[in-house]
Amino acid sequence: MSDNTYELIMYARTTPCPFVTLAKRVLEAEGVPYRELYIDQDQEVQNRVVTWTGFLSVPTLVVALPGEDLPYTDFAPLEKDASPRGVDRGPMLTEPGEDLLISWLRRYGFIGEKHTIGGVA
Questions:
Q1: Of 7, 40, 74, 98, which has the most beta carbons under 10 Å away?
Q2: Which residues, 6+ apart, have CB-to-CB distance to 3 below 8 Å?
Q3: Closest to 63 measured CA to CA, from 75, 45, 54, 55
Q4: Taking 80 as the threshold, does the pLDDT of residue 120 lie above it?
């Protein structure tokens, strides 16, 4: 984001995951800086993701204040036992597809209207 109001945090894991790979590809293609926290290296980080999603769901992307690891504001709850996959919860997004990730990044000002992948304008 050009004014550095927010920081993007990606809760991920160190082992391969297709959703993490997709998110990294989009973020790198768009030049979006992000910070990764690993659920398989930090129990507190793992507990957060399970509390937020009900699962070990990665990536879980969070819009945070600079230097913080938590969403900058409240996020929408999930319905009981619902999958978090592809659910836009405001400042939190878990396991998104490419189009959803691009529109979410755009909404929070991490990317502009024009971007380099997917053809979504």
A1: 7
A2: 109
A3: 75
A4: no
